[in-house]
Amino acid sequence: MKKRTFFAVLILFLIFLNSMILIASLVILNSKLSAVRERCLAEHYVIASSLIGDMQALEQRGIPAAESMDRLMRTYTHYLQGREDGLAVAFSGEWIYRSALPREVPNPPPDTGHGQERLVCLEDGTPPVLLVYGSFPAPWQDYGLLYMGNLDEAVSTWRHTKNILFLAGALVMPVMAFFLFQFLNLLFRPLAQISSASARIAEGNYKSRLPVQGKDEVASVAHNFNLMAQQVEAQILQLQDIARQKQQFIDIIDTNSSLLLQLIGDILDISKIEAGTLEFHFRPMNLNDLCRSEYEMHKGRTNPGVSAAASRAWPISSWTWPCCGTARRRRKTAM
Fold first, then answer.
1. CA-CA distance, 290 to 327, in Å (whole number)?
2. Comparing C-alpha atoms, which of 131, 169, 232 is closest to residue 14?
3. Is-contact 109 144, C-beta < 8 A?
4. 86, 71 in Cβ contact below 8 A?
């Protein structure tokens, strides 16, 4: 049970930890993309505003802005060097200027309907880019500026951060597993003690008890277990006393039965003696051994105040003695 609980909790924690890491990484990615989006929008607004001013200055000099777009955009392209971002200018549905762009621009240019709203879209690929396109206000509504922001650095930073988070999670897992194992040992220790005490009681050790510590549910279970073990021990002792009393009764019945049989045998012997039908068979026997066996048989049956004693001071160890029937009768004949 402890092993199943350990693996179940560990798997749940692993799922929870990886889910949290994934959610955190997605939040970080969204934050980075939002930062890039705000930067691209700000750069697009600044460049578009400055470019409109330059175009107005050229028109006032009588120079068409479309023909001088390369010269106008040179300053802004130089400004973006090192960022791997790009600019493109459209006029009447066609691109009239393109800087060193990270990727190909959409063709034809997006149609905003001469509105002032800017289009922002994210395109996946190699590299991923963020596109910001907006048309100029009147009288320059035929012009549009595209700002292409390179997301490769932001995505690479996010992937690096995500890998670090997952690596930290992998390092945390063994530590978590160790503390979880120790916690489960502490949690299942009372159950192990109850199981061990139950096994000892099943083996016949009815004095087994559990330590009662604290006032929680586990302590209540240990207290109730001790009460149950105490009652079982009392019942076992009572049964042992009853069994002992029964054995005493059986011993008394057996002894009285032996005495009754002996009495019947004596009556039969007396009847045979009176009738003169008792047969005697003479053969050698050891009187000392006979007396010793009789002493051992009758020493525990003496009445209070009566003592039994045996002596081996017989001058002859083997006599020829009349015997009859069984060994019991031979002993009574010798006596």
1. 10
2. 169
3. yes
4. no
| 231-257: average pLDDT | 80
145 touches 47 (CB < 8 A): yes
Give per-residue pLDDT as tens, 207-225: 666 676 666 666 777 767 7
H helices then E strands: how many in the chain?
A: 6, 7
Rounded Cα distance, 85 and 105, in Å: 12
**Per-residue pLDDT reduced to its tens digit, 300-310:** 666 666 666 65
Own/partner pairs for 105-108, CB < 8 Å, 24+ apart? 105/146, 105/148, 106/131
- Give me the DSSP letters along 68-81: THHHHHHHHHHHTT
pLDDT digits (tens, 9 = 90+) for 106-154: 887 887 766 667 888 888 877 888 999 988 888 888 888 999 988 888 8
Whether the CB-CB separation of 297 and 250 falls below 8 Å is answered with no
- Averaged pLDDT of the chain: 78
Residue 18, C-beta contacts closer than 8 angstroms, at least 6 positions apart: 166, 169
Is 134 within 8 Å of 126 (Cβ atoms)? Answer: no
Whether cis (ω within 30° of 0) applies to the bond prior to 108 is: yes
Both tokens assigned to 256:
């009285």
Q: Prior bond to 127 cis, omega within 30?
A: yes
Sort 134 into a burial class: Cβ within 10 Å, 0-12 / 13-18 / 19+: buried
User: Is the pTM here over 0.70, yes or no?
Assistant: no
- The dihedral formed by the CA atoms of 237, 241, 242 and 248, expressed in degrees to the nearest 10: 160
Cα distances (angstroms) measured from residue 89 to each of 66, 141, 167:
9, 12, 45
Q: In angstroms, rounded to a whole number, what is the distance separating the alpha carbons of residues 117 and 106?
A: 18
Tell me the C-alpha distance between 300 and 99, whole Å. 128
